[in-house]
Write a structure and sequence with these properties.
This protein is an alpha+beta fold. The chain is built from 5 helices and 5 strands, in the order H-E-H-H-E-E-E-H-E-H. It folds into 2 domains: 53 residues, no CATH class; 58 residues, no CATH class. The longest helix is centred in the last third of the chain and has 16 residues.
């Protein structure tokens, strides 16, 4: 499950930040046993955005996935979601990834 994967990254000491809106679905997701345990450490953090927030993505130093996708079973298995995948390439950099880090960091600090 996606929650187990995020928890495993956090348990390995990799910083994981989740921005979501406060809904019953996101509350259930954040309180799954694996994420609840991982959130007890500093590597996995979650913050709530305004209910109008609808941006979706997964950002790492070597890739950025963005699009309309809902990272749920229904969104992955049934709906025709749009996804764009950016990779760092041979030089280890991509302007889209750098810009996404700046934007996500700005948004994260705003949600304190």
């Amino acid at each position: 499950m996606f929650s187990d994967y995020l928890a495993r990254l956090a348990m390995l000491g990799i910083s994981v930040r989740i921005i979501t809106t406060k809904t019953s679905t996101s509350e259930r997701f954040l309180t799954t046993p694996s994420l609840r345990e991982a959130r007890s450490g500093a590597a996995l953090q979650a913050r709530y955005a305004d209910s109008n927030y609808h941006e979706k993505g997964i950002l790492a130093p070597s890739f950025y996935i963005e699009g309309s996708m809902n990272i749920t079973w229904h969104g992955v298995q049934i709906r025709g979601e749009k996804v764009t995948y950016h990779t760092a390439g041979e030089n280890g950099r991509h302007p889209k990834i750098a810009a996404a880090y700046l934007e996500f960091d700005r948004r994260w600090e705003h949600l304190k």
